[in-house]
Design goal:
six-stranded mixed β-sheet; 2 helices; mainly beta; 2 domains; Immunoglobulin-like; five-stranded mixed β-sheet; binds copper (II) ion
């Protein structure tokens, strides 16, 4: 089983040693029955595809971190509190980082960052929603997940669970503006974005 967020990518190797006709699909019965799945048919096999519900499963990024020495220390820490204003904009939820929703009119807020510095973005999710966090033009290292320091987990999208804390570090090595946002379209449309500006 895999847990994959919006814009996240996973490469997986599968040992094909169970001949038959199977459903590869979403764990949610509703989503799967409405199309989120496909059929894997072994050569020479036929019949109706079978779905067998797997045992309960919890994805944990920490399984993919490298053991041992902690991540490098950041030069700066940016604390970001994720909050939701229920139905605040004509019935749609508004999303804020440190109390401020991103404005499409002013393109703000903008955070200034310095070339070559290592920054830690420290998230606290004060909502029950999962947010696929994405930083454009950078690879970041996840350095803390729900109480556990991590290192060697390099990504550009990471899922922040409901009421979870997570840190990631990146080096300011891209000039100009870089967008940080939640990759859930409705969340970014309603405030969950911030611009980083490197001179
Ligand atoms: Cu979100």
């Amino acid at each position: 089983m895999l847990w994959i967020g919006t814009a996240e990518r996973v490469s997986a190797l599968v040992e094909m040693d169970r001949p038959g006709v199977w459903v590869l699909g979403d764990l949610s019965d509703d989503d799967r029955k409405n199309g989120m799945g496909t059929v894997v048919e072994y050569a020479g096999r036929s019949g109706s595809p079978r779905w067998i519900a797997p045992p309960h499963f919890t994805w944990d990024y920490r399984d993919f971190a490298r053991p041992g020495s902690p991540a490098a220390r950041p030069d700066h820490v940016i604390d970001l509190l994720v909050e939701k204003r229920n139905a605040a904009d004509r019935g749609f939820n508004v999303w804020t980082l440190n109390g401020v929703p991103f404005s499409m009119d002013t393109n703000k807020p903008v955070l200034d960052i310095d070339r070559g510095r290592r920054y830690r973005m420290r998230f606290r999710n004060a909502t029950d929603d999962i947010h696929p966090l994405h930083l454009h033009r950078h690879t970041f290292e996840v350095t803390h997940i729900a109480g556990t320091p991590t290192h060697g987990l390099d990504k550009d999208v990471v899922m922040l669970g409901g009421y979870q804390a997570l840190d990631f570090d990146f080096t300011a090595d891209q000039p100009g503006l870089s967008l940080f946002h939640c990759h859930q379209q409705l969340h970014m449309d309603y405030g969950f974005m911030i611009l980083l500006r490197r001179s």
